[in-house]
Amino acid sequence: QVPLEESGGGVVLPGNSLRISCKVLGRTFPSWTMAWFRQAPGKEREFVASIRWGVGTANYAQSVEGRFTISRESGRNLMFLRMDSLKPEDTAIYYCAKAEGPYKDYDSWGQGTQVIVSA
Fold first, then answer.
1. Radius of gyration of the chain (CA)
2. First to last CA, the chain
3. What are the tens digits of pLDDT across the range 10-60?
4. Is the dihedral of CA 66, 60, 54, 107 positive or negative?
5. Residues ≥6 apart with Cβ < 8 Å to 13
6. Are 97 and 48 spatial neighbours (Cβ–Cβ below 8 Å)?
7. What is the DSSP letter of 31?
8. Integer angstrom CA distances of residue 103 from 50, 55, 67
9. Model confidence over 66-99: pLDDT tens digits?
């Protein structure tokens, strides 16, 4: 396990954009898969997007594809989620997570950062 620290959440208007960050507080490895999950009030946690740390290949949930962009700066141990065209249904606590590889369980989680999309 490795400590993960999210930041950048806040309150935004529908249609606006926000970028949240995840800092890996330790050594990273190219084999890792990093991801964003979210949990809305009264709902189960759901997958949002993932990225292969070494090669940068990304995957998205259908609900966010075309609106959200996952990226990383491996030299700074940072992962980002750029969220455009935000909708009220994007309101949730967003968590970053790490897995040892693309078919491994996520074994490290951050504390989350809250995103509220509201007029």
1. 13
2. 38
3. 999 999 999 999 999 999 999 999 999 999 999 999 999 999 999 999 999
4. positive
5. 86, 117, 118, 119
6. no
7. T
8. 12, 15, 25
9. 999 999 999 999 999 999 999 999 999 999 999 9
